[in-house]
Amino acid sequence: MGLLASLKNLSGNQLKQRSLLSHRSVCYCCCWIPLLSSILGSTHAFHNPIQPNRIAPSTTSPLRPFHSSTSRLFLESRRQELEELRVVDLKDRLKERGLKVGGRKAELIDRLLSEPETAAMPRRSPRKAPTDDETKGPEEVVAEEVVVEELVVEEKPKKRARKTKAKTEEDSASAKKTTKQPEQRITEVDVIPKLWSEEKAKENGSYTFKMASWNVAGIRAFVKKQPDALQKLVKDHDIDLLCLQETKLQESHVDDPKMNFRGLLEEQGYKDYWSCSTVKKGYSGTAVFIKERGGKKKAKQPSIGSFFSAKSEDAQEKVGDESSSSLPVSSETLMPTSVTYDLGKSVDNEGRTIIMEYPWATVTNVYVPNSGQTLQRLDYRTKEWDRFFLEFQKKKQQDRKKPVIWLGDLNIAHKAYDVWNDGAKHHVKQAGVTPQERESFTQQLDDGFIDAFRKLHPEAKGHYSYWSQRSGARPVNKGLRLDYFICSPELFEEGSEVVVRDSYMLYDYLGSDHGPVVLELEIKSK
């Protein structure tokens, strides 16, 4: 009876403490309760101190210690899960919750863990309120709930990481890579005949003077990518005058011995002149290389590096390989009497022009301003530059009583044949093909000047000098003709001392988004 009295006098707090026993202890107690009841008699029912709801709804529930430890384990598991995510995925989650996304990865994880989530805690099994006729003791109820709780935690599937927007974009990009893209249609190039040959010139006792123009889009990068391209061009085509645009050099770079731009083609027998932008560094810029024909000239001392480069090949043979007596015309005819840059500082302080006065014509190497991606310089180009430059050429022609030629990157695709997709809707806002630029260029030609290539090949299609590198346009020939030779009309007259004979593009020379263009003139012997 003393043992029964002790059991009857157990307080509620003592029962709660017993609920924290291990499963083995709880089951041990549950086994002794029926035995004691049978000894004391069936008339002595086991007293339940908790009325009639077996688990008191207090804040000191016997399950709270279990939940605290489980919560810590879950937070550790969730932290490990978050640490496996990328920073961009963590930021996406923070954005969805309206939280700050700045800081290191550890700070982002702490911020996510401190924010409560609806599914952050483990699921608890629903508990039904016990009925009055239930005979289970509080220890049995607690033991059952603990077991159920454990089963719920063990059976809970691992939370899957939500697929973020960034991940979706990556998957989409990956799918695009694996998807075979349709081949682009190649813009066809009409075959044009060769209109002139040096053999024919020799038969006539005249000399073929060749000019080449090339926008190199930054000569430092150009030389690194194609170190021998200029040397190969002047050698293979026996160029008399090579004009470059968009060199992007400062004046200090030209004479810097480490860069070696001064005398770049000296081994091949060329004298060079440079015009650099003074208003903006590393911008615009032009250069010319003039072949010094006739007489002997000492070759430049080759550097150690030149012995491993093709540029010194046959250099001694190329320099001064023609005497004045071997030329059908005098060597003075093939050299300019002056080289200037005087277009006017108020108009050109960007190194856009070099003017050469030959005995038979005034030749200007020019890099015409681009109107810009947003056409921010459209008015300047069409209303100021084009008009001033036209008047400058007309005045030169009038003052010297000689024809003029201006050549280079004129930043205009004039006619339908000069652009691969003429008539496209976006052309009205694309620099080089806007109606304003085309109209301005038409006015220049209508004032008494001729586009040499289009004069000689009026119906030729697919002959371009520029291809965008961003869209991979060159292999499929989606280009524009932006590089020109503009000449006075008398240079096309058979009775003239100098006559334009041919003009064409060279497609085998790489290193720039432009290709070289060539003009051939016949200089007749007197």
UniProtKB/TrEMBL annotation:
Documented EC number(s)? 3.1.-.-
- Basic and acidic residues compositional bias: what residue ranges? 129-139, 166-183, 311-321
Q: What class of enzyme is it?
A: hydrolase
Q: Which SUPFAM superfamilies match?
A: DNase I-like, SAP domain
Q: How is the cofactor bound?
A: Probably binds two magnesium or manganese ions per subunit.
Chain positions of site Important for catalytic activity: 483
**Superkingdom per UniProt:** Eukaryota
Keywords (alphabetical) are:
DNA damage, DNA repair, Hydrolase, Magnesium, Manganese, Metal-binding
**Annotated Gene3D superfamilies:** Endonuclease/exonuclease/phosphatase (3.60.10.10), SAP domain (1.10.720.30)
Q: For site (Interaction with DNA substrate), what residue positions does UniProt give?
A: 514
Which protein family is it in? Belongs to the DNA repair enzymes AP/ExoA family.
This protein is called DNA-(apurinic or apyrimidinic site) endonuclease
Q: What is the lineage of its organism?
A: Eukaryota, Sar, Stramenopiles, Ochrophyta, Bacillariophyta
